[in-house]
Amino acid sequence: ATTDAAATNTATTNADLFARAQAAIPGGVNSPVRAFRSVGGTPRFLVSAKGAYVTDVEGREYVDLVAGWGPAILGHADPRVIEAVTDAAARGLSFGSSTPAETVLAELVEARVAPVEKLRLVSTGTEATMSAIRLARGFTGRDLLVKFAGHYHGHSDGLLAEAGSGLATFALPGSAGVPADIAALTLVLPYNDLDAVRAAFAEHGDRIAAVIVEAAAANMGVVPPLPGFNAELVELAHANGSLVISDEVLTGFRVSEAGWWGLESKTEHAYTPDLLTFGKVIGGGMPVAALGGRADVMDQLAPLGPVYQAGTLSGNPVAVAAGVATLRAADAAVYAHLDGAAATISAAVSEALAAEGVAHGVQRAGNLFSFVFGEEVPVHDYATVQRQESFRYAPFFHAMLDAGVSLPPSVFEAWFVTAAHDEAAIDRIVAALPAAARAAAS
Ligand code: PLP
């Protein structure tokens, strides 16, 4: 019998639940990476999370280095966020009308990220990038979009495109169901390759509406931009009348108070994107995402301008409450802690792998990090990432999981720390490393 008790029933097992989920849900999951396809084995069904830890349906606790794929920057179930959400929920779940807190969240973002003059809230990162692209097309009156191989911007049609061969090749669909005519509006270039960008603008400059780029790539493992890449990209785009959409869905409010833009704005490589997209931390674990940027561009959105964009749940009061509480709590001390935890954990992993003779590189972008296996390090683009000895990750991952440490279930994902990763949590990770490194070596 199907009962609600299944949601919290700790008498069942991960394997039983996965079997049952597979009968009811495609692949047993609501987002593919959760199915553990790239590492094998049985996904853990989580029932609760607190601080640096998550607990599965069998009652096993793991130190968590996924952090809900980024949002849980303060640690899971931070009391300040839970209180804000509970309080908002008690006042009603969804009004479909303006609320005071939406403006508070927009003001918080605008105070932190100078290029954001106006902000529109949506519910997912996919919606944010999709809307930003429509807006860039509406503003410029052009059709083409440039993206970089290995960058992920959500699952809207035009972004599920992979490169054909050669420079500046029009994309082929990266998923069944994406019409070739739509994929053909996306030009996929190798990341960190400004010559490829110059060539694309030389050939198609007057047709390119926007370049969309992860502020620092973190969806093929972590691959930071080369110094000056973002700044030069903005210059090239502007010289050709195109906009730059800097996708900070993952990096925004995670790598610094002002995201990746904030880190680079303090260097000689400062840049000003036209539009930025946010997700994850901005919602503190609830469905909030946003697009923001130049007021003259943002004002092209309906109801002021001709670019349509809307959402029943946009600016949802309960979700916005989580975002406001999270951003208010994420102060300089939190970012200092995240930087320290990332440095400690990544150094410990590297040391353990080196001790077992496993060739690898540590890839860092602020407090985001991941590892590439093999001799070809550091890595600056997708083609090189794909050539790594990725077979070493599955045994490493499972050894860590067996020891009570939950890593991202794919070598092509960033690791996420939280402000709740204290000495005890880090010690547990470090203690698990020698056996995992041995597993990776074999
Ligand atoms: N953009 C980036 C850089 C992301 O990392 C993600 C998700 O991982 C997205 C967009 C899509 O966000 P969502 O999963 O909320 O649709």
TrEMBL record:
Involved pathway(s): Porphyrin-containing compound metabolism; protoporphyrin-IX biosynthesis; 5-aminolevulinate from L-glutamyl-tRNA(Glu): step 2/2
Keyword Phosphoprotein attached: no
Subcellular location: Cytoplasm
Entry-annotated residues carrying N6-(pyridoxal phosphate)lysine: 280
Principal location class: cytoplasm
Coiled-coil blocks: none
SUPFAM superfamilies cross-referenced by the UniProt entry: PLP-dependent transferases
Entry GO MF terms: glutamate-1-semialdehyde 2,1-aminomutase activity; pyridoxal phosphate binding; transaminase activity
EC number: 5.4.3.8
UniProt entry keywords in alphabetical sequence: Cytoplasm, Isomerase, Porphyrin biosynthesis, Pyridoxal phosphate
Enzyme class, UniProt record, top EC level: isomerase
An example Gene Ontology CC term for this record: cytoplasm
Pfam families: Aminotran_3
Catalytic activity from the UniProt record: (S)-4-amino-5-oxopentanoate = 5-aminolevulinate
GO terms, biological process: protoporphyrinogen IX biosynthetic process
Cofactor: pyridoxal 5'-phosphate
Family named by the database record: Belongs to the class-III pyridoxal-phosphate-dependent aminotransferase family. HemL subfamily.
Known partners and oligomeric status: Homodimer.
Protein name: Glutamate-1-semialdehyde 2,1-aminomutase
Species for this entry: Agromyces aureus
Taxonomic path: Bacteria, Bacillati, Actinomycetota, Actinomycetes, Micrococcales
